[in-house]
Amino acid sequence: MRKIKCWAPAALLLLVFAATPAGAWECGKAPPVQTPQTRKAGEAVPPLPLPATPLRRSEKKNPPSPPVLVGKVVCGPDDRWTRAENDVDNLLRLASQQLSVPYRAVRIDLARFSFDPEEVPILYLTSVEPFTPGDNLLPRFKNYLEKGGFIWANASSGSPEFVRSLADWLGKIYPDRNLYPLYPNHPLKHAFHNLEKVGIMENGVKASGSPDLRVLNLGCRAAVIVSGLDLGCGWALHTHDFGRRYLPEDAVRIGVNLVSYCLAWIEFGKLYGQMPVYAEKTRKKSGKIYLGQVMHAGDWDPHPAALGRLLYRVAEEAKVPVYLERINVDLKKDPLDDIPILYLTGHFDPRLSRPEIEKLRAFLRRGGTLIADSCCGSQEFGAAFRKLMAELLPGIEPARWETGHPVYRAPYRLESFLYTDATPGNQGPLEVYLLDGLPAAVFSAHGLGGGWEGIARPYTSGLSASQSGQLGVNLIAYLLTH
């Protein structure tokens, strides 16, 4: 293999591989680490000279292998596809030191892989050249993701061809889903390290910026995480003057966050899609109040079971005759005449069209109410919603319903709140837009729907699951009587 001039940050190398002689490893291979050896006490003592009875000695004990976390997928017919041979192996060694949990990586040949996330929770794809699995593998990738697996996709040297090929075959699997840039407070940015700014090298020129990561969500989980800048060389602790890549220190920090995030969201991935969605025994809506959930381009359905589970509680606990199935509302074509309340949520900007905005404005002005929450506490959705309300109801500023407001009193009494982040417990989560003295829209910057669904969302901003459900019941009951 031709050697290429490369460098690694001296402080990081000395910290992790202090015993490795400088220049003793090739580009694309992480510095070797000595295999741990285990002996019982006294085994290192030399034997006594004869005729004394020698001490009993035993063989070296190999420590048990750490569990497999990542499978590095063979993305080409020869070794040219991987520019950093030991990238993910070295990342897991470094992550194990920081997270105090050891894991290992294995090579994966897709032709012989089970596509079982219980066996390998994360598949790692990396290449400079385009990578397109055969059409026969696409359903297996889909099944793998929906059973809780993750895909990390790394554009080696920042290859745009690799990213384009990935987007193409992911679009075949999920034609109704997009690859989104991280919203400002996405969990991947603070799962372990703070990644607001990272070091970047583009064709030998150093700069700084936000991580160039894009995600495809299944529910609230970033099931596919794509890096448009090269992480692999940084994980192997070297870099080059060509291409687009992260500096090694920050590549490792991003990698540790990827590991931490995926470990925390594994259980969500297993449970997502298994939550029961309530269905009406009869399709008659007469005599019942029913709610609609707005469909939009900004990841509109992150918790499919949430609204139905909330409506069931409203019917049982507030004794309100509600239709238990949510109505999916397409503002482009669906009538809103018989819907008193709409629900809007998501992680990203809904990007409603002008006709959709006009239809929603008419809905609010004739007495309808909009409930909205930022799923997972997404700052992008929150900013977009406030901008939308300025168009829907110009000149009307939101007011906060503080803890003494009647909405927090019945049927459940809520005097303080338990948030999943550092929000003070004496701060009520609800903001209201009043039109002619009545609530036209109610908004929470903290996620509520995740609590209605009942699956934990690590590293996010929301109200506790128990209080989310209680507040949801209170809010529906209050709006239907006001």
Give an overview of the whole structure.
This protein has 482 residues and is of the alpha/beta class. The chain folds into two domains: 64-271, Domain of unknown function DUF4159 (Rossmann fold, 3-Layer(aba) Sandwich), CATH 3.40.50; 291-481, Domain of unknown function DUF4159 (Rossmann fold). It is 27% helix and 18% strand. It has helices at residues 10-16, 87-99, 138-146, 160-173, 232-235, 248-271, 306-317, 354-365, 379-392, 449-453, 465-481; strands spanning 68-73, 104-108, 122-127, 150-155, 180-181, 198-202, 205-209, 213-218, 221-227, 244-246, 291-294, 327-329, 341-346, 369-374, 399-400, 430-435, 438-444. The strands form three sheets. It has a seven-stranded mixed β-sheet, with helices on both faces. α2 (87-99) packs across α6 (248-271) and α3 crosses α4. The longest helix is centred in the middle third of the chain and has 24 residues, at 248-271. It is elongated, with a radius of gyration of 27 Å. The protein starts with 9 loop residues before the first helix and ends with a helix. Residues 1-34 and 36-55 have low confidence and may be disordered.
